[in-house]
Every structure is written in structure tokens, then in C-alpha cells.
Amino acid sequence: TGFTYTDSVTDLSIASATEIDLVSDKPFSIVQTDSTTSVAQPLQFLFGPFLGYILACGDTKNPGFIYWTNKFDPDRQDPANNVEVSSPQDPLQNGFVYNGLAYSFSKAGLYALYPGLGDTTFTPSKTSCSRGLWTPLAFCVGPQVFFLSNDGIYATAGGLEQAITDDKVRPLFDPDQSGTTVGGIGIVDYT
Length: 191
Description:
This protein has one helix at 11-15; strands at residues 30-31, 37-38, 45-50, 53-57, 65-68, 82-84, 92-98, 101-106, 110-115, 122-126, 139-141, 145-149, 152-156, 162-163, 181-182, 185-186. By secondary structure, the chain is mainly β. It has a four-stranded antiparallel β-sheet with strand order 3-4-5-6, with no helix packed on it. A four-stranded antiparallel β-sheet has the order 7-8-9-10, with no helix packed on it. It has a four-stranded antiparallel β-sheet with strand order 11-12-13-14, with no helix packed on it. It is elongated and about 80 Å long. The relative contact order is 0.10.
């Protein structure tokens, strides 16, 4: 419709151009147990930025893994940018950045993610927080990290947790509580 296209690029320059890497150019690349790589896989929970990286968890095939993008390049991710943090029986729930460090909650605990010496490494370390996150969105970051565990609400600064659920409210979080209310308030349904 009146438009003329003129090809001014030589075949030699096209042939010598760098090809787009179809694996690492599409976050997130997930390496399956049979060693095949699935590219552009959506992960449920992203957090950061942390030191130029965007981190993620929520892989249903590798539930204990953390993934991260290339440094200062959130649109790309090397397939090697992952680390197993917890076992598949203790899936990661979500992550956050607090006080200059990245963390990830599992169902049973809290892990710190220490940056390595290279550009693409993180080393997970279980913290002294002995409780995990009950459900992926039941936490908030403020002066401390407040979170719902399987028996109440707690606060942590990255170490030991402190119960902030007092004795009057604690029965609301007891799954063995007889009846359906405590003082007229319904108990938490963990199902």
C-alpha cells in the first residue's frame, strides 16, 4: 500500500551477526531431572532487586530451588543461575530482601542467600529461625520480617524468631483446638 522496503544489509553481515541465545535470553530456564532445559518458564514468586539480580522461586518441578537473572540484566538468565536451597519435601514459599541480604522461606525454615565471589553464584545457609512460612503470601517486611507459621505469628530479623502471638490469641492458631471459635472468633483453617 505505497510502502517500499529497501534491503541495505549485506548477506555477509547478516551471516556474521551474533545469534540470539534462545535459552538464556528468556528467564526462567529450568533444567529438568532428565537434563532437558525448559525456557521461559514462569515462576510464581520474584523478589529483589538484590545486588543487580532478580531472584525467583516457585518452580513446581524443582520446589527447593532459587533462580536468578543475569546481573543488571533482568531480561536474561543463564540456565546455570540456580541453586538448590531446600529439599523437594520442604518447598520454598517465597523470598525477600531485608537488611542488605536476600532470604527465602521454606515450609520449615528461613534461608539466607549469600552472594558468591563470581557473578553468578549464591550460597544458601539455613538461619536460626526454626519456623517456616505457612503459605507463600503470609509475610511482610518492615522493621522486622513478620510471618505466619503453622502455630502463630512470628517476627525475625533474619535469625531466631520471636512469637508475637500472645496467650490470649494463640488458641486461634492451634489446629488441634476443639470447636470452631475462641471467644467468638473463628480459628485459623490451615487446610
